[in-house]
């Protein structure tokens, strides 16, 4: 499967297909047409067909899509058919909230360590995971396979922390700090900025109904 040729726009939509298909599976739905999926997802049926055809077209004329098969294939494309070990840097409000969200684990993202610079937080537990001091980070990363580091620390600290982690061989960052990270080309960064999402909402609120004028 030539998934390296799939456009970024399609890759961006795949998690949403995956989520909807997962919900359908939970409801016991075994197959679905692109039209039905289109109504549910509010994406045009032709967009769905176009997107899913990238993967060799799992749909069959007159049958629709086999939900479980499609769900599993998308999981493979997204690399969700394995476990990723995640560490969280920063055991504050956000770091703890992420660690507390057990559903990430269902998707294969397993939090194996939480680190903080604050001595007072050392030894605390979040959903059964011990908070360690940053001084323990190096040994931990050497002794464990760490696939992803989530950075939930202030931006002034995040760049430095990322540099240390890159040195230790970490290749992927889930960056919540409001800053760009200076990482080598073979290191992946996925930044999440909730405030940008709010700004889009603000724009939509501001412009609501303007098209009708
Ligand atoms: P917080 O103050 O509750 O937690 C921050 C934690 O980071 C503290 O426990 C602190 O001791 C620790 N810390 C500071 N420097 C460190 C270092 N060098 N190494 C390890 N730990 C260190 O803050 P909160 O609310 O958890 O937010 C964390 C960061 O995430 C903030 O910078 C905030 O701006 C950002 N944030 C980003 C969001 C986003 O959508 N991207 C949403 C909310 C917060």
Outline:
globular
CATH class of the largest domain: Alpha Beta
**How many extended strands?**
9
CATH superfamily of the largest domain: NAD(P)-binding Rossmann-like Domain
Distance, first to last CA: 48 Å
What descriptive keywords fit this protein?
9 helices; globular; 2 domains; Arc Repressor Mutant, subunit A; 9 strands; Rossmann fold; single chain; seven-stranded mixed β-sheet; binds 1,4-dihydronicotinamide adenine dinucleotide; alpha/beta; 213 residues
Please outline the helices and strands.
Elements: H1 8-26, E1 31-32, H2 34-41, H3 45-53, E2 65-66, H4 67-77, E3 84-89, H5 93-100, H6 103-106, E4 109-116, E5 125-126, E6 129-133, H7 137-143, E7 148-151, H8 155-167, E8 172-175, E9 188-191, H9 194-207
Parallel strand pairs: 3-4, 3-7, 4-6, 7-8, 8-9
Antiparallel strand pairs: 1-2, 5-6
The structure holds 1,4-dihydronicotinamide adenine dinucleotide.
């Amino acid at each position: 499967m030539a998934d390296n040729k799939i456009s970024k726009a399609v890759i961006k939509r795949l998690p949403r297909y995956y989520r909807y298909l997962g919900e359908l599976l939970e409801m016991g739905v075994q197959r679905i047409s692109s039209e039905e999926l289109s109504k549910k997802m509010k994406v045009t049926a032709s967009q769905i067909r176009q997107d899913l055809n990238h993967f060799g077209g799992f749909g069959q004329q007159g049958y629709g899509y086999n939900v479980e098969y499609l769900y599993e294939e998308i999981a493979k494309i997204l690399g969700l058919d394995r476990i990723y070990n995640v560490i969280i840097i920063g055991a504050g409000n956000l770091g703890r909230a992420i660690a507390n969200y057990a559903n990430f684990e269902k998707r294969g993202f397993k939090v194996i360590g939480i680190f903080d610079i604050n001595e007072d937080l050392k030894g605390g537990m979040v959903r059964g995971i011990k908070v360690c001091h940053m001084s323990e980070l190096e040994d931990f990363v050497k002794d464990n396979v760490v696939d992803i580091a989530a950075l939930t620390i202030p931006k002034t600290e995040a760049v430095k922390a990322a540099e240390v982690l890159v040195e230790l061989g970490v290749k992927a960052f889930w960056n919540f700090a409001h800053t760009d990270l200076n990482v080598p080309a073979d290191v992946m960064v996925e930044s999440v900025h909730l405030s940008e999402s709010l700004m889009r909402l603000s724009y939509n609120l501001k412009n609501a109904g303007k098209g009708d004028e």
